[in-house]
Design brief:
Chain lengths: 414, 414, 414, 414
């Protein structure tokens, strides 16, 4: 009866509690989101990294951090506290002593973890899934799985007494899904589910469908494109649900989108932009699989031509380096011509922790999706472009312009 | 009679020729500006690096490159072709064969070189000046020197049949000048000149005063603060002359102003920003002198706090490395905290040629100053902020916002 | 009665216990040495970093790690466990849970901490010393202080029942001491002490003198040159005591001495070697003082010319960056000419923790000094050259040749 | 009659002229070797980069640079002066004005260029070969081609009046050849040639066989393993011919072999060594082909485990970046554990010109092979290990030990 236990602990605020349902709840990013929210809410660490806590973006009545209640799906049986403890051991990003102070909160949210699906996610993800998850994904029809996901969501809302739920996908990258006219309309997609066509959909397609049909906003922080097909977007409009994706912009691509405009405006011609990423966490392991890596690289590599306005030589590599754990390192080499066609270069080395960079963005997007839904907005949220490597429906990749769009969007709703 | 020789060579265009008078005409930057303009105008190299040649900033009828006629002051006797040849030998930024094709143009402009002054420029600059320049600076009163400069400018315009002249200071960095109320008004500054008070002014004060009194726009591409005192700004307003400074934003500081907003917007707290610059040209030699370096560092270091909005640990070093010649290398180490106060880092290594980066900006500013004057605008040109490390009268250091300001300014005058 | 408590805990091994007396016992390096020795001895971490634990250098019967008993002087009142805990908090180099397992050992060694002297150490060190240490240094004569140090050492040996003691100086860098003929002989140095000439000696001179007169080997891991003057070396020979210094070679200089021979052998001419070091611990704070920094830089910068065999442009900067704590970062830029005089470059960025790099070297040197003394060797130990930036009496700075010398030395004594 | 023309120009020295026959004579490396030798011999540039010109390795009567006469094979019709001029244009490594002073020498050597073979070299090389070379390779049997190569070599020696010839392979990398027992003996290899078995041999097998059968020393500077099979080595011993390979150690691997011993000796455990190479010349284009790249990477990657003595995570990437031309850039990331298992890192960025780094090594090896043959030495030359990424018959990869071996070898023959 963990739900009861919770009720005794959290005081219902005036606005009511908001559920955050995370696909991939047992992974490093979700653990960092959940543990981090408790640490910030308790004042044990500052709110660094959360954009909606800056002066420029505040004063909009966003959901309070201690009103957030977490739950989610995962394909591995995980213990949230153990997962957080493992992070402490490997990267020290979650410090041990504060972690011990929030252990009981993690145990409460633990009760909201449900078994997920690995339908057509590729071998790399199946390899890390539990036998039970795999059996479940194989034996139930797509329609049955969809129903189960929806039931999990409803149960979460009612048990926890939540005013609303936001669903966020932070699961490992699926291989890209070839979209065709069957994914073009809600009716088409429903037929695929009804026909149990497992080649035409992936796990993320089901999660997103379940969320949207249930009336919950959906955010795709993963590169996986199967979660927000045209059919999903149309359903979201119809259901009055805000959605956005794909692929959180956290590290190397963030820097790319901050620097590339400088070259453009200065009329410095970028000849070559090579990017080499090395990382060692579970995400890195999944990306070592070529099929899954393909999805990731395509979102990382396209933005340069769009910002600069001309074709150039680019290359993005992602290599698995176990010793790094979650401490991702990227080396970018930018070769550019200036006046008199003279070639010069800029190199950068980025050393960041992916989960630490991504977690506050998840919180921002949850708040902003809640904000949009509260104003009756539905469909894509282009104002969130600055959070994504591949912002759906948005051509602007210049980080600064994307940020300005977000600030303008909010200003107009002040 | 080189002026005559010129007339036979350049066909007066419809709009008429525009004079560009460069303080420091014999240096590497001026040589690159002059030779580069010829190479681009002749189609021997593309217009890379010139912002006013991009689609976004074009269509405003800026002065044509082959309408620009160059002249200037220098404190060393220099031969423009020899100077360009030396650049080819040291850095290959000016390629040899195209250089030979523009030799005659350089010889024509050579005739417009006049002897400059080193009044109160500090030992480092005096050391590289000719004996004649030093004698001249010592024996003539400030008033006499001012008169000589004005005569040189007038003679340039009349001999060359120029519709107007723009004066640009690209001379070596002077030590900073302590400003007080004597520099606050035109009357005060005139008294300093009349009293021949050599401690209270520097060479650049005289050049700028001569330009503004003559009705010519003045651009201070050097960090030297003595050239645009409050007295100069007031005189510029009175005379209807546009002016702007200080210190061209070409390399490390450019990257700083492009990257710092990313940290700010993402609420990533920059703890430390260390910048190490190494360079080996004459500019580097002058900056090896502590007094002169002080001026430079102060313009390079201040912008971070202004962009980020909080105090942080910063450090800027400039060291002289003769083997590099003009190929400046900068290493910046940025230490920042993210979510859960976790520290991460970004390092970059910038390898650029200072003259190559600066030269097209000089051409842009000449065009934009000519444009502003043509519209009757006078005093500071805040729209040029993106070109300066320390844009006078402007608090905005975010490169992207500065660029947007320039684009807006032009759009409003389309 | 902490000494008693110890006896009950440590079982005297066949060879007997060896005392390690550390000048600067409360600092980060000493804490890492002491805590690390316990962690390795208990098998909680591997022996990585200790050269005398490699196959190539083993089999010589070096002192066992759990036979080492620690004591020392410090000028601040410190608690060893607190100091280790602070290291865990700041850099996580000492992990928390294993630290808790060795808490009792640290408390035992804590009882061996004695108050040190700050005689003529410069303002930067005085600033971090306790009032008591400063008063003590001021009120006692040099002769009295020397006597007190000797008494501390004797008491340590007898209380702990040690077969011998090795004294190691890891205290903060003192300003360089100008040596003259008064420091040339033991008699001269005795006169300085007798005359209480506080300008002519520094704290490290007294510590070393006390150790050598007591018959204990002395190792100077600090750059401070006042601890091993010619007088000290002569006394060491006379007393049959091995000594060595100066300045442990741990990071940037280590890489320099590994890389420079490559350029020499390949006949690649190094034009420039710029080295920029940033660090943030107490050592960095002391080095922010120009007088103290001078000693450090002189040992870091000299070796290149000696390895390469020709003069070159070099520069070493050390800057204090508090946010880094003990995580030192160094950027080196090496500009070299190859065939046809063509210039190329190598840059490296070293990111290491100084204490982690230095601590195992301290253990190696303690063992090797014990080994040498056991064979009746006295005076300088040139075989330890690979451990020092400025190995006294040794001209060879090529790391690989230094290592070969150590291996040969041991082989001859197998 | 170019040979005649030569005779009138070069004065036969006392020792006589030495022929250097280069496989790949029209490529960037060969051009740099040939032009560079003239420039150094004429005193137009210093001898930087040539190890046999250092004091440590001199005094052995090595062949004089102006006694070297060049000839060679290529699969493209090339003009040596044009090739050198193109290098000037693209990278400025060969300066224009000195190039013009040696134009006549290049024209003389031009007459010694002969058409080569592309037998079984892979698609990437065929693509850059001339139609004539491809036809020739296809229509002639292996035996006929071998005979033609031998005739070219003999003709070179007699026409030019050379005391001996050294053959050096610097052609583009061939795909690796699977060796089996047919390549184990001279008889076996002869059978393959007689049977015209084009799958079992590659172009480099024929060149090397021709050289050795003709009694000429053979040096394999390329990674291609088909040129020095066990059969070749046995024939070399029988014929009294010195040979050595494979793959010149010029850049990233050179630094690896200089740095890895530091980690080994310090007992710092290297967890990961990632190496990323980007380059843009013809060599880079050929290496963009996966089959050819395989040969290269295998020689670059193996040495770490051999130096360190334990398995570790390594990765070597080579990517084609056209804008770089021959200016190769490599970024290496080394992740290592130190004391207390704490992880630290070293990164380096190497920016060098491959041809400039390799050319002087070719001259060194020619001299040293000539020296060895003069002393009656035959078969592999392990003393040349420091020049090769994969030195045949040598297990030692530590650069410093390799260098010491060369110095010892020479000292024993002084």
């Amino acid at each position: 009866m963990p739900a009861k236990k919770r009720k005794s602990k959290t005081k219902p605020s005036a606005r009511g509690k908001l559920g955050v349902w995370i696909i991939g709840m047992g992974g490093g990013l979700a653990t960092t989101v959940i543990a981090g929210t408790q640490l910030v809410a308790k004042g044990l660490v500052p709110a660094t990294g959360i954009m909606t806590e800056t002066e420029a973006l505040s004063g909009f009545g966003f959901a309070a951090l201690d009103d957030l209640v977490f739950g989610g799906h995962d394909v591995r049986p995980v213990d949230l506290y153990e997962s957080a403890y493992e992070i402490y051991r490997e990267t020290s990003t979650i410090p041990l002593e504060p972690l011990q102070e929030i252990r009981s909160e993690l145990e409460v949210f633990q009760a909201n973890l449900r078994l997920g699906t690995v339908v057509n996610c590729g071998d790399a993800i199946s390899k890390i899934a539990s036998r039970k998850a795999k059996t479940h994904s194989k034996q139930l029809t797509l329609a049955e799985q969809l129903k189960a996901i929806k039931a999990d969501l409803k149960d979460f809302q009612s048990r926890e007494g939540l005013r609303d739920v936001i669903v966020v996908n932070v699961a490992s990258t699926e291989p890209p899904l070839e979209l065709d006219k069957r994914h073009a309309t809600p009716a088409g997609l429903k037929r695929l589910i009804a026909a149990d066509d497992r080649k035409a959909l992936r796990a993320s397609s089901l999660y997103a469908w379940a969320a949207i049909e249930s009336g919950y906003a959906y955010l795709n922080f993963a590169p996986s494109n199967a979660g927000l097909t045209p059919a999903h977007l149309k359903l979201a409009l119809k259901k009055g649900v805000p959605v956005m994706g794909n692929d959180g912009k956290t590290g190397e691509t963030l820097v790319k989108s901050a620097l590339a405009p400088m070259f453009k405006h200065r009329n410095l011609k970028v000849e070559t932009w090579q990017g080499y990423n090395i990382l060692g966490d579970r995400d890195g392991e999944v990306l070592a699989d070529d099929a899954n890596k393909k999805a990731k690289i395509s979102t990382k590599d396209g933005l340069l031509e769009q910002i600069l306005g001309y074709p150039l030589h680019t290359h993005v590599a992602i290599d698995y380096v176990p010793s790094l754990n979650d401490l991702k390192t990227a080396w970018d080499f930018i070769h550019f011509s200036g006046f008199l066609n003279y070639k010069m270069s800029l190199q950068f080395t980025w050393q960041g922790c992916d989960a630490i960079l991504a977690a506050p963005l998840v919180l921002d997007m949850v708040r902003l999706a809640d904000f949009a839904k509260g104003r009756g907005e539905a469909g894509l949220m282009p104002q969130l472009a600055c959070y994504f490597k591949n912002p759906l429906g948005v051509d602007e990749h210049d980080l600064h312009r994307q940020y300005d769009k977000l600030a303008e969007y909010l200003d107009q709703r002040r």
